Amino acid sequence: MAVLSPAQRDAFERDGFVAPVDVLGPDEVAGHLASLEALEAARAGRLPPSMNAKPHLLVRWLWGLVHDPRIVEPVADLLGPDLLCWGTSFISKSGKDEKFVSWHQDATHWKLAEPRAVTAWLALTPSRRDNGCVRFLPGSHRTVVPHEDTSDPDNLLGRRERVLADLDEASAVDAELGAGQMSIHHALVIHGSEPNRSGSRRTGFAIRYLPAEVAQADGRQNFATLVRGRDHGTFALEEGPEADFHPDAVKRHAQSIRAGMRVIFEGAADRRAAGG
């Protein structure tokens, strides 16, 4: 079982991220990628956005991934023994794809009572500079910076937000990963990724974890998945799917997504109307 070394923990504290961390073997990651491609092929070649929000509540092998000790135990080294999964999604770029992720901090619209959370970014394909790997600005996790929402259709973020600050992009570090490796980054570290200039797809599975004692800032009880330790009552707990796309799982998934959308998007329209 993979746990972080002292040097890796020190790197996370200093830089706001650690990479690479070995997780899956070649046969495992190839099997997961094939399973994802089968899901996509059954849906006109891509997952619809509603399915790509918390897909672990719909698909059993993804439910297993968010609980996999090889992912969870390194996260527990950083956040403590009681862990929730707050969200999951695939982040894919096709070959020669102009889609990108702007510089941002994950916690901007999560509205947590405190930004003690991480994203485990598991590479299902190689993730390199030429195909748009994640890039980090080391040490940027110590300060909350303002963001603005944009309307750029090529921006893969949900609200197409970007940092409003002068950034030292020359200091950016490319978190290149082999298939089956992951990075772990702090919810406040500034990061983004460039378009895929290669001829092959780049795909990762992003898993958002937080300590089970951390709640939403406004006291609203959102939904999350308990993956380790004990529940602290801060979120309503989600259930795993009885089978892939089981009707009961589909209903529970829709309820969880509606609650999460209210948290993330509440007030966005008002701000856009005001020019903010």
What this model shows, in words?
There is one protein chain. By secondary structure, the chain is of the alpha+beta class. It has six helices and 13 strands. The strands form three sheets. Strands 1-9-4-11-2-12-13 form a seven-stranded mixed sheet. It is globular and about 50 Å long. The protein starts with 5 loop residues before the first helix and ends with a helix. The relative contact order is 0.22. The C terminus is likely disordered.
Question: Keyphrases for this structure?
Answer:
four-stranded antiparallel beta sheet, 13 strands, 276 residues, globular
Topology:
Blueprint: H1 6-15, E1 17-22, H2 26-41, H3 60-67, H4 69-79, E2 83-93, E3 101-104, E4 118-123, E5 134-136, E6 147-149, E7 161-163, E8 173-174, E9 181-186, E10 191-193, E11 202-211, E12 223-228, E13 236-237, H5 247-265, H6 268-273
Parallel strand pairs: 12-13
Antiparallel strand pairs: 1-9, 2-11, 2-12, 3-10, 4-9, 4-11, 5-8, 5-10, 6-7
Share of helix, binned: 25-40%
Class by helix and strand content? alpha+beta
Quaternary class: single chain
Distance between the termini: 47 Å
Continuous helix count: 6
How would you concisely characterize the structure shown here?
The protein is 25% helix and 24% strand. It has 276 residues and is an alpha+beta fold. The protein starts with 5 loop residues before the first helix and ends with a helix.
